[in-house]
Amino acid sequence: MNGVRGEATATLAGAERRLCLTLGALAEIETALAIEGAAGLAERMRTLSARDLMVVLAALLRGGGEHALAGELGQAAVDPREAAEAVAKAFVAAAG
Q1: What 8-state DSSP symbol labels residue 3?
Q2: Structural domain boundaries, residue 47
Q3: pLDDT tens across 63-85, in order?
Q4: Which of 13, 54, 64, 70 has most Cβ atoms within 10 angstroms of its Cβ?
């Protein structure tokens, strides 16, 4: 894990995974959720649906290089609480 890059790790689908809020991940999230900018993202993050959570998680996983899991989230055994915690960790790491 590279803390300087803002990477975070989380256990998802039974394995340790790397997540990162890259500019590409941010653009992917904004496009998928039809929002613009940090204010829009912050507002939307307060009321994420389960589908939105998976969209955000997939983008963060791709940002961390975890492309295989990101592409298979619909079939993966990811606990919703673990997903929410992983997303939160990634945003905290990006802010740090």
Answers
A1: G
A2: 3-95
A3: 999 999 999 988 888 888 999 99
A4: 64
